[in-house]
Design brief:
By secondary structure, the protein is an alpha/beta fold. The chain folds into 4 domains: 263 residues, no CATH class; 289 residues, no CATH class; 192 residues, Rossmann fold, CATH 3.40.50.300; 74 residues, Alpha-Beta Plaits. It is 44% helix and 15% strand. It contains 35 helices and 28 strands. It has a 6-stranded mixed sheet with strand order 2-7-27-26-24-25, sandwiched between helices. Strands 4-3-5-6-28-23 form a 6-stranded mixed sheet, with helices on both faces. A 6-stranded mixed sheet has the order 14-15-16-11-17-18, with helices on both faces. The longest helix has 28 residues. It is a multi-pass membrane protein. It is found in: Membrane. One of its GO terms (molecular function) is ABC-type transporter activity.
Length: 1065
C-alpha cells in the first residue's frame, strides 16, 4: 500500500517568496487609520451614537434655557439715600424679636464711657462681660440685640487707644428676613454668583443678604464712631451724620439662567462624554481580547504607531462631537434675540475648553483600557470609574467657598473634576454678562481664585500623565499576551539604546547525548533557521509548561508539533513569537535571539494562532491587504498577494464578504493566508485546520506543501494524518518535554511494532483455531483485539520471512476458518504518538518487546470490553424531585461560577457601597449651614479699586467740607486704591463708566463718597457684599481725622456673626 508523505511533493514547483518593499511608520499609521475608519463606516449606528450622544446631552441645557424667562429692565435703577441714625424705623422692620440689650467685652471704664451714649441713642441697656467667650455665650443664651467685642487689653482700661478695633457680634440668623440662603455671607466678598443684573435691583438698602442696613449693623457702627469721635473732638463743630446711598444701575436684562449653569453645566458635560469613553475602551479591548493587537505586533507593527492611530481616530470622532456641542451651546435658538445657552462667552474659548477636554478623555480611556483584558467588563468598570472621577468635584463644591487653590488643583488631577471646575467658572463668567473671553482665560478673576487657563493646563497635564500611565501599564502588565517588562524598564540601557544583537553563535549540536536515540539525525544540506536551546517556561503557579526544549527546524521544511492538550505546543509558539517571555533558555530565529532581538525576529514572522485574528467588519480581500501592507508590501505587491491567496485558498467567491459572514473553516483558511502573505520566512500555524471540512483540509495541505519552499514552517495539530502528510519532521511533546523528533518513517520504525494483520470474521469463526494456524508460521503471535467482526494480530518485523507462507495458507483456508477477508498494514502515526506520549517521564527501551507490545496494546484495546451499563439501568428522576435537583444544580453552577469570578462579585458588592459612601461624604461635607467666619471690613480687601468722590468746586466748598475731603483723600495713601474726584452728580458719572464697561465698574467701583456742603453721603456698590459698612467706615475715618485734628485716629471693625443655632443647622 502506497503512503503519501510530504516528501513526495518534491515535484511541486519551487516558489519565490515575495520580497516586501517595506512600509514606513507613516505608511503603517495611514494603514491603521484606514482600518479604523473603515470599521466605523461599516458600523454606522454605533459610530453615529458615539458622535451624537454628547450633543444630545447638550440639548438638555438648550431645553433648560428655553424654560427660563428673561425679564428686561429698560430704565436706570436709582436708589434713595438711607438714614442710618433712625434706629426706631429699622427696629420696626425686624421680624424676629430681641432683648433690648447691648453686650460688650471686656469690662472697663473707658469702654463703658464709649458705649453709654450708644445705648442712649439706640435705647438699649448695656451689659459688660469679661471676655469674648463669655460674650458669645451670653448672646446665644439671651437673644440680646448684638455684642461688641473689643481688644482684651482694654479690660479695666480708663483710656481708649487712638486706633480703635472691635468686632460686631450679630446673630447668625438674620432678624429682618430669615430665609434659608440669606446670611451675612462673611465667607466671600461677592455674591455666590452675579446673575447678570443688579443684585436685589428693587432694594435701596441692598437687600436682605447680608442686610447690613436692615439688621441695624450700620446704625451701631455709626453710633460707636460718633461716640468715639466726640471723646477726642478738638473742633467745636457738631459731628455730622452720614447718609448711605446705593450706586445706580443701568438698564439690564434680568436672567436667572446663569445661576443654574454653575450646577447643571458641569454635570451635563460629564454625562455627555461617558459613552465616548466607554466606546474607546471597548474598541481597544476588543483587539486586545481577540489577540489581534499582539498579532499585529508580531507581524511588524510598532507600538507607537498603534497608539497614535487610535488617538487620531478617537480625536476626529471627539472633535466632531465637540463641534456640535459648541454649536448647540452658542446657537440662538430662542425668541429673545441673541440669546443662547452661553450668550456672552466667546465660541472659540468654549471650543478650546472642550478641545483640551477631548484630548484628556482619549488618554484617560487609553489608560483604562490597559487595566482590563475583556471588552465588556472593561466597558462596565470604565463607566463606574468615569463617575468616580467626578466625585471629588461633587463633594468639594458643596463647601466651595472654603476650598483652597491647592485643593482645587489637586482634585483637578481627575479630568472630570477639572472640567467640573472649568464649567463652573464658565457659568460664573456667563452670569457677569462678560462671559469667558480670551482676555480672561488666564486672568485671576474676582469671581474665583482659580482661572480657566489653570484648568486647561491641568487637563493637558492629565492627558500626558494618563498616556504615560497607559504606556507603563501596557509594558509591565500586558495581560495574557505579550512580554511583561520589569517595573524599572524605563531606566534600563535597552529601553534607551534599543535591542543589542546577540553574540551567541548558533550551535550545530541540537540535543544532548541523553536524547540521541529519540532524535533523528539532522538532514544534510538544510539550514537550521530556528534553533531552540533549552527553552523553558514556568508560570507563577510553579507549573512547568515547557521544560528544556532543544531542537532545530530547517528551511524548506514543515515541522509538525504533536502533543496532548497542555503538552506545551502553544506555549512554545508563544515564546517564539514573543507573546510570552521564556523563563530560561532561548531560540535563534534567522540569526536573531528572541531574548534581545524580538523586533528583528518579528520582521520575518507569519503567525496563525488557534483563534481567528479577524475583524468582523473587514472582507477577505481587505484582511489580506491590511496584513500584507502591515508586513511591508507595497500596494502593487499587496494586490498580487491578494489575488494569489484568494485563489489558493479557494475563497474567490467570498473575496468581498465580511469575515463575520464566513464559516469557521473559511475563517481558518483566511488566517493561514494572512500568515503566509508577504513572503514570511518563518510561519507558525497553531491548529490551522480546526473546523474545516475534509475537502478544505486537503486544499490547505496542498497550499502549505507548495508554500514551504524557502520558508521554515511550524505546524501544531491534533490530526495524525495531517502531521503524517505535512510534517517533514515531527516533534512529539508531552508534559512540556520533547519526547522524540524525526520524520514519520523514522518515528514509525523507532516506535512502531511492525505490521498488523486484520481479519474479517464470519459468524462461525473460531478465533483459537485461526490463531493456531497462524502460529505455525509465527510462533509468538497473539490476538491484539477481537471486537465485533474484526480480529487483529500484531506482527513483528523480525518474522517477516514467514509472512508470505502465512498469508498463502490463510487465503487457501479462509473459507474453512470462516474468514471473509484479511489485510496487512503498517503501524500508524497515531499509534506512535500514543506510545511515545504514554510515558510522561521519557521513552524507555528497558522493557524490550514485551513492554512495547503491552504499551501499544493498552491503548489499542480500549474498546475490547464493551460497556455493560445501558441507559435503562439508570433510574431517572421525575416530578418535584427532578425540579428540586435542577434548582440545586443551577445553584451549584452559580456558586462555582461566582467563586471563579470573584472579582466581579467584589465589584458587584462594593459599587453600591461606594456610591452610598460618596453620598454620605457629600452630605457630611455640606453639613447644612456652616458658621460664618469673621470678615474684616476695609477697602484694602478689594484690590484694585477706584473710588468716586463727589465734591464741591473749590471756590464754593466750605472749610469743614474741604478738610473732610483732604482727609478722605489721605486715606488712599495707605491702600492700593485710587481716588477719582468729580464735580458732576455721582449718579451721572457712575452711569457713564457703567456704559463703557459694566463688568469693570461692578468689580472695581466698590465705594464712593459725596462730600458736599449740605450733606455727607457714603456710596456703595451692591455687587460687593460688604460695601455698605466699608463705605461708611471710609467716611468715618475721614471725619475722625478731621474732628480730632490728627490722622493717627482710626477705626477698624470686623463682622463676626454668632454661630447658628441647632435649629438652623
Amino acid at each position: 500500500m502506497a503512503i503519501l508523505t510530504a516528501q513526495s511533493t518534491s515535484t511541486a514547483a519551487a516558489t519565490t517568496l515575495t520580497q516586501p518593499a517595506g512600509t514606513s511608520g507613516w505608511g503603517k499609521f495611514v494603514l491603521l487609520l484606514w482600518k479604523n475608519f473603515l470599521l466605523h463606516w461599516r458600523s454606522k449606528v454605533s459610530s453615529l451614537v458615539e458622535i451624537f450622544i454628547p450633543p444630545l446631552f447638550m440639548l438638555l441645557m438648550v431645553g433648560l434655557r428655553s424654560l427660563t424667562e428673561i425679564e428686561h429692565v429698560p430704565h436706570v435703577s436709582v436708589y434713595q439715600p438711607l438714614d442710618i441714625t433712625n434706629f426706631s424705623a429699622i427696629r420696626r422692620n425686624l421680624v424676629v424679636p430681641f432683648q433690648d440689650t447691648l453686650a460688650y467685652s471686656p469690662n472697663g471704664p473707658a469702654l463703658r464711657t464709649l458705649l453709654e451714649p450708644v445705648g442712649e441713642w439706640m435705647k438699649l441697656e448695656l451689659q459688660p462681660l469679661p471676655n469674648g467667650s463669655v460674650l458669645q455665650d451670653f448672646l446665644l443664651g439671651t437673644n440680646a440685640f448684638a455684642g461688641v467685642e473689643f481688644d482684651i487689653r482694654l479690660n479695666g482700661s480708663s483710656t481708649l487707644p487712638q486706633r480703635l478695633n472691635y468686632r460686631l457680634r450679630f446673630p447668625g440668623e438674620q432678624r429682618a428676613q430669615f430665609t434659608v440662603g440669606h446670611s451675612w455671607q462673611t465667607d466671600r466678598r461677592w455674591g455666590s454668583r452675579p446673575d447678570g443684573g443688579a443684585r436685589f435691583a428693587e432694594e435701596s438698602d441692598g437687600g436682605p443678604s447680608p442686610g447690613y442696613f436692615r439688621e441695624g449693623f450700620l446704625t451701631l457702627q455709626h453710633f460707636i464712631f460718633k461716640s468715639f469721635a466726640q471723646q477726642f473732638q478738638t473742633i467745636p463743630d457738631p459731628i455730622p451724620d452720614v447718609y448711605l446711598q446705593r450706586f445706580p444701575y443701568p438698564p439690564f436684562r434680568e436672567d436667572s439662567f446663569p445661576s443654574s449653569l454653575t450646577t447643571f453645566l458641569p454635570i451635563s458635560v460629564m454625562l455627555a462624554f461617558i459613552y465616548p469613553c466607554i466606546s474607546i475602551v471597548k474598541n481597544i479591548l476588543f483587539e486586545k481580547e481577540k489577540q489581534i493587537k499582539e498579532a499585529m505586533k508580531i507581524m511588524g507593527l510598532q507600538n507607537w504607531v498603534l497608539w497614535t492611530s487610535w488617538f487620531v481616530k478617537c480625536f476626529v470622532f471627539t472633535q466632531i462631537s465637540i463641534g456640535l456641542v459648541v454649536l448647540f451651546l452658542k446657537v440662538p435658538w430662542y425668541t429673545t434675540p441673541n440669546v443662547s445657552v452661553l450668550t456672552y462667552s466667546d465660541a472659540g474659548v468654549i471650543w478650546l475648553i472642550f478641545f483640551v477636554y477631548g484630548i484628556s478623555i482619549i488618554t484617560f480611556s487609553f489608560m483604562l483600557s490597559t487595566l482590563f483584558s475583556k471588552a465588556n467588563s472593561g466597558g462596565a468598570v470604565a463607566a463606574i470609574i468615569w463617575f468616580l472621577a467626578f466625585a471629588p468635584y461633587i463633594i468639594m463644591v458643596q463647601d466651595y467657598r472654603n476650598l483652597t487653590v491647592s485643593q482645587k488643583l489637586g482634585s483637578a488631577l481627575l479630568l472630570n473634576s477639572a472640567i467640573g471646575f472649568a464649567m463652573r467658572l464658565v457659568g460664573v463668567y456667563e452670569g457677569t454678562t462678560q462671559g469667558v473671553q480670551w482676555s480672561t482665560l488666564f486672568h485671576d478673576s474676582d469671581v474665583d481664585d482659580i482661572n480657566i487657563g489653570q484648568m486647561l493646563l491641568m487637563l493637558l497635564g492629565n492627558a500626558a500623565i494618563y498616556m504615560l500611565i497607559a504606556l507603563y501599564i501596557e509594558q509591565v502588565f500586558p495581560g495574557d499576551f505579550g512580554l511583561a517588562q520589569p517595573w524599572y524598564f524605563f531606566v534600563t540601557k535597552r529601553f534607551w539604546c534599543g535591542e543589542r544583537p546577540s553574540s551567541d553563535e548558533p550551535v550545530s549540536q541540537s540535543v544532548s547525548s541523553k536524547m540521541d536515540d529519540n532524535i533523528e539525525a539532522e538532514p544534510k544540506g538544510r539550514i537550521p533557521r530556528i534553533q531552540i536551546r533549552e527553552l523553558r517556561k514556568v508560570y507563577s503557579s510553579k507549573k512547568i509548561a515547557v521544560a528544556g526544549l532543544t531542537f532545530n527546524m530547517f528551511e524548506g521544511q514543515i515541522t509538525a508539533l504533536l502533543g496532548h492538550n497542555g503538552a506545551g505546543k502553544t506555549t512554545t509558539m508563544s515564546m517564539l513569537t514573543g507573546m510570552k517571555r521564556p523563563s530560561s533558555g532561548t531560540a535563534i530565529i534567522w540569526g536573531h535571539d528572541i531574548r534581545t532581538e524580538m523586533k528583528s525576529v518579528r520582521l520575518s514572522l507569519g503567525y496563525c494562532p488557534q483563534h481567528n485574528i479577524l475583524f468582523d467588519g473587514l472582507t477577505v480581500r481587505e484582511h489580506l491587504y491590511f496584513y500584507g501592507r502591515l508586513k511591508g508590501l507595497s500596494k502593487l505587491q499587496a494586490q498580487y498577494e491578494i489575488d494569489k491567496y484568494i485563489k489558493a485558498l479557494e475563497l474567490v467567491d467570498k473575496a468581498d464578504v465580511r469575515s463575520s459572514s464566513l464559516s469557521g473553516g473559511m475563517k481558518r483558511k483566511l488566517c493561514v493566508g494572512i500568515a503566509l502573505c508577504a513572503g514570511s520566512r518563518v510561519v507558525l500555524c497553531d491548529e490551522p485546520t480546526s473546523g474545516m471540512d475534509p475537502a478544505a483540509r486537503r486544499a490547505l495541505w496542498d497550499l502549505l506543501i507548495a508554500e514551504k519552499t524557502r520558508r521554515t514552517m511550524i505546524l501544531s495539530t491534533h490530526f495524525m494524518d495531517e502531521a503524517d502528510m505535512l510534517g517533514d519532521r515531527i516533534a512529539i511533546m508531552a508534559d512540556g518535554k520533547l519526547k522524540a523528533v524525526g520524520s514519520s518513517f523514522f518515528l514509525k520504525k523507532k516506535y512502531g511494532v511492525g505490521y498488523r494483520l486484520i481479519c474479517v470474521k464470519q459468524p462461525d469463526c473460531d478465533v483459537d483455531r485461526v490463531t493456531e494456524v497462524l502460529r505455525k508460521h509465527i510462533p509468538p503471535i497473539q490476538v491484539e483485539s477481537n471486537v465485533g467482526s474484526e480480529l487483529s494480530y500484531l506482527l513483528q518485523e523480525e518474522h517477516s520471512r514467514g509472512f508470505q507462507t502465512m498469508l498463502e495458507e490463510l487465503e487457501k483456508r479462509g473459507e474453512e476458518l470462516c474468514i471473509g477477508d484479511f489485510g496487512i498494514s503498517l503501524t500508524t502515526l497515531e499509534e506512535v504518538f500514543m506510545k511515545v506520549g504514554s510515558d510522561s517521564t521519557g521513552v524507555s527501551q528497558a522493557g524490550g518487546e514485551e513492554a512495547s507490545l503491552h504499551s501499544l496494546h493498552s491503548y489499542s484495546t480500549g474498546t475490547d470490553i464493551e460497556s455493560r451499563t445501558t441507559v435503562d439501568d439508570y433510574e431517572l428522576l421525575e416530578g418535584s424531585r427532578l425540579f428540586l435537583y435542577q434548582i440545586w444544580a443551577l445553584f451549584l453552577k452559580k456558586i462555582y461560577q461566582t467563586y471563579r469570578n470573584w472579582f466581579l462579585l467584589v465589584v458587584q458588592i462594593l459599587i453600591p457601597v461606594l456610591f452610598v459612601a460618596v453620598t454620605i461624604a457629600v452630605v457630611r461635607n455640606w453639613g447644612g449651614s456652616g458658621n460664618m467666619p469673621p470678615r474684616a471690613l476695609g477697602l484694602r480687601f478689594y484690590n484694585p479699586s477706584l473710588t468716586l468722590i463727589q465734591r464741591e468746586p473749590e471756590d464754593q466748598a466750605q472749610p469743614l467740607q474741604q478738610r473732610i475731603l483732604e482727609n478722605y483723600m489721605q486715606l488712599f495713601n495707605s491702600m492700593p486704591s485710587m481716588p477719582f474726584p468729580v464735580f458732576d452728580w455721582m449718579e451721572d458719572v457712575f452711569l457713564e463708566f457703567a456704559d463703557i464697561n459694566l463688568m469693570m465698574v461692578n468689580r472695581q467701583f466698590i465705594v464712593g463718597a459725596g462730600i458736599l456742603n449740605h450733606n455727607l453721603t457714603a456710596w456703595f456698590n451692591n455687587e460687593a457684599l460688604h460695601s455698605p459698612p466699608v463705605a461708611l467706615q471710609m467716611m468715618h475715618n475721614a471725619l475722625l481725622s478731621t474732628f480730632t485734628g490728627s490722622r493717627g485716629y482710626n477705626i477698624s471693625l470686623t463682622n463676626f456673626p454668632l454661630p447658628y443655632t441647632d435649629e438652623t443647622r
